[in-house]
Amino acid sequence: MGAKFNKLKEELKSLERDELISGPVISKKRSGGLFRAGLSSPKWLKGILFAGFLAAFLLYAGFNYIGSSQSLDHSVSSVENWVNQPDEDLLTGMGNWMNDMGYKNLSRQDLIDLRKEGVTATFTSRMHDLGYANLTLDQLVKLRQNDVSSTFAAMMKELGYDLSIDDLIELRQHDVTAYYTSNLHDLGYKDITKEELIRLKDTGVSITEVKKLVNDNKTRPSIDEIIRYHISHQ
Question: What angle do CA 67, 70, 72 make, to 5 degrees?
């Protein structure tokens, strides 16, 4: 590819040099009889050679780009794999901590898989401290898959809710947050149930709407009234 490319390039340079020589009196010899003595190179031949040169250049550049692109992709992939490699000391520490909490005989791959799901020894320990001491590995994974954090569980407990693992998962599946719940408590809905929280979120009721209704009414509207107001103003 390189030899062909260079040959075409030199031929094109020769054509350009020929054009700089004025008059038909200069005798030129080209291998293969492409040029006759006393005549300048024909335009159609220049066009063919230039097109060939351009095609060879583009093909050559294309091969180089593809090669460099593949090499770049391989390099990026290698770096990503290196970055994502688990720290061995971290895995060892996690394994020991999980073992102390009752999760015996976890293999290195078990620990890696748990971390990929977001389950860490810290998360597990905090859930244990909140009273969820008998969690299975499947439950831990399911909690993290549904975006249940130990902070969410702790805040909901602080707000007075005694929630099971399934309750925590259900609330997060309906996008109920501790912040949303706390704001409702601040507006006077301290006894709002898990089911009512889910109804409000599923209907799309915002804290701003609830605050407006509370401020506009002498008495605090019920959950049903809030939902009806929201629906009627869609």
Answer: 105
* Contact of 226 with 200, CB cutoff 8 Å: yes
With beta carbons less than 8 A apart as the criterion, state whether 140 and 114 touch.
yes
Per the CB < 8 A criterion, the answer to whether 172 and 148 are in contact is: yes
**pTM value > 0.70:** no
* pLDDT < 50 positions in the chain: 15-41, 69, 72, 75-76, 79-80, 82-83
Domain ranges in the chain are 2-84, 88-232
Q: Residues 118, 144: contact at Cβ < 8 Å?
A: yes
- What span, in angstroms and rounded, lies between the C-alpha atoms of 125 and 127? 5
CA separation, residue 58 to residues 15, 17, 52 (Å): 20, 23, 10
**Residue 227: count of CB within 10 angstroms of its CB:** 19
